[in-house]
Amino acid sequence: MEPAQSGTTRFHAPLGRLALFLPLILCTEAMAQDAERGRRLFENQCLVCHQDIAKPGQKHAVTNLQDLRQRIQGWAFHMGEDWGKSEVDDVLLYLNSAIYRFQEPAR
User: Fold this and answer.
1) What is the pLDDT of residues 27-44, one digit of tens each?
2) Which of 29, 47, 49, 100 shows a CA-CA span of 20 to 30 A to 55?
């Protein structure tokens, strides 16, 4: 009698597919949470001065993600905020998804 190896493979195939897609699912969820945190940081710390200029579709002086990152870092420092990389990254993610929509990867 031969072992039922082909049946075993069939049962593990969905788990293999899940293993391939799980990082994408978790990454997408984490990005959504980070963008939400970025939105809250922006609304609590930046929107007071930027409420009239931070609108989708409006022309901006920022032309790429690196420039946007530098501006976020500069203004956080200027305003006395003790933002680390995670706060800057979250605000960058939020602003890019809500307003700028640059296609290049953030560095």
Assistant:
1) 444 555 689 999 999 999
2) 29
What does the alpha-carbon distance between residue 27 and residue 56 come to, in Å, rounded to a whole number?
25
Q: Nearest to residue 98, comparing CAs of 22, 23, 24, 47?
A: 47
The closest alpha carbon to 104, from 69, 55, 77, belongs to 69
Name the residue with higher pLDDT: 4 or 76: 76
Is pTM beyond 0.85? Reply is no
Determine the residue type at 14.
P
Task: Evaluate the CA torsion angle 8, 13, 14, 19 in order and state its sign.
Answer: positive
Type of residue numbered 43? E
Cα 45 to Cα 62: distance, rounded to the nearest angstrom: 19
Q: Dihedral of CA 91/94/99/103: which sign?
A: positive
Measured distance CA(89)–CA(46) in Å, rounded: 15
